Give the backbone structure.
Amino acid sequence: TNPAHIRNFSIVAHIDHGKSTLADRLIQFTGGLTEREMKEQVLDNMDIERERGITIKAQTVRLEYPAKDGETYVLNLIDTPGHVDFAYEVSRSLYACEGALLVVDAAQGVEAQTLANVYQAIDADLDIVPVLNKIDLPAAEPERVCQQIEDVIGIDASEALRISAKTGVGIPDVLEAIVTRLPAPKPGDPEAPLKALLVDSWYDTYLGVICLVRIMEGTLKKGMKVRLMGTGAAYHVDGVGVFRPAKQVVDSLGPGEIGFLNASIKQVRDARVGDTVTDDRRPTGTPLPGFKPAVPVVFCGLFPVDSAEFEDLRDAVERLALNDASFSFEMETSAALGFGFRCGFLGLLHLEVIRERLEREYNVDLITTAPSVIYKITMTDGTVIDLHNPADMPDPVKINTIAEPWITATIFVPDEYLGGVLKLCQDRRGIQRELTYAGSRAMVVYELPLNEVVFDFYDRLKSITKGYASFDYQWKDYREDDLVKMSVLVNDEPVDALSMIVHRSRAEARGRGMCEKLKDLIPRHMFKIPIQAAIGGRIIARETLSALRKDVTAKCYGGDATRKRKLLDKQKEGKKKMRQFGRVDIPQEAFIAALKMD
Ligand code: GDP
Ligand code: MG
């Protein structure tokens, strides 16, 4: 295709503002799918994505659009994820595009991820067309939201499109704007040595690793041998194609085009996002700058509830990692939990998505230990250790300083909930940096220790603001502070999976909260159970779970057999999800629930 007739674009938006719905409409209007074929939200194809209404993996589709100027254009749409944990996927897909549609819900207005995503698009030098979606809603206020886009984001919104992705109003204008208002890719020489950007890669059961590529120069053809310049490895290209949205094989891809190649690459890790794909026999002299790899920032231990399932877990974790290069794992042994894995994630949502997939798709019951960030520990002899796991904390007398990661968080919140949000940030050791208004919404910028955010910050924020706040964060720096390891002892046995690193000033309150929670979560036993929190040898909080004497079925007065059986079954069911620590059974939920603060 002549690059003048190509438009490569992304849709950037805050979650739920209608990006996926708009993408589906564009596919439908350009005949990629008939209405009948179009299942809801074609582009969100993982189960969990559909259930939670979030897009995790960026998806691409090629559309053909006969424009009003009489020419037919090829439109390559890259659907980007909207959630903060997946911001990295947003940024890398933007480098394959020249333009972006900025979708803003005309009733909600600009939100935290609208800002974060649009700034990434601006950083990547993309032209931006603002689109106000959901104008069918009675609460839509397009005028006000246009003004807000200009005030808060600082881009011209006078020609913002007004559409409803739901009803289809304004969709033809969107297609026309893509052609007339977004630039064509820079022309490249199709005869030059191949130079292509590896935009994304994922594992396909039939084809092996699939690489999504954007061609800059040269031509990609089936049968040629390509080299990935970062790793140096060369592969025979088994196939070249495009997504429409179904895979369709093509003869070749030329400058400006986006498509996929499959080349019997074994692991996603071998096809690094940001790498330059070139011709093995005639390599380009100027590889692309590439991206920084996505680094895990939140770690936790995953252990099978039933230790006999360890091999199943290993198998599942390995298979998941094949398809998700940002998920890392290594084996871990815990005195209390036995064999498991220490896993790294991009954020808490990523952690939850992986945990859910392991349980659901691979059918293993898991115990998740306290999420932790990476602490930098400087020892008295000067060596610096990256600590991923509180259980590995060195002897405090050998520690000189401990530093923890900080983030800059941006929160948008309606006026009436502002007080609650400020209190939450303050309680989490936050430092206020900015407080401004955009209409009736406040924008608050705080610096916060990431450690205080990984536990239940999103959940708390959501409940305080009835779901009306939006949140986004960026990495800031490492700061030294008075941090200590808090251990938890159940029946005088330390439960390493519950130990955590906390700020000394918060240790007592945290310890007390934890003991109270555990007291509620651990079922009563035939004996009395002390539950304690400690720093070093010093007990800072204590609760006692009193002994149970009665048989649970005793109160069923003999008569009703089914009820009795139900109770016993329920008890058995409960048993299955418990782990024994010394003489005490601790239910699976206790591990995560005990960490939530309220
Ligand atoms: P995404 O998170 O940005 O991909 O948002 P989705 O496309 O998944 O849309 C979020 C919700 O908004 C869904 O329930 C959609 O049905 C709804 N939605 C999307 N576009 C419109 C619209 O134009 N009008 C109305 N009323 N609802 C819409
Ligand atoms: Mg979506």
Observations:
- Residues 19-20, 44, 55 surround magnesium ion (ligand 2) (CB under 6 Å).
- The radius of gyration is 27 Å.
- DSSP finds 14 helices and 33 strands in the chain.
- The chain has a mean pLDDT of 85.
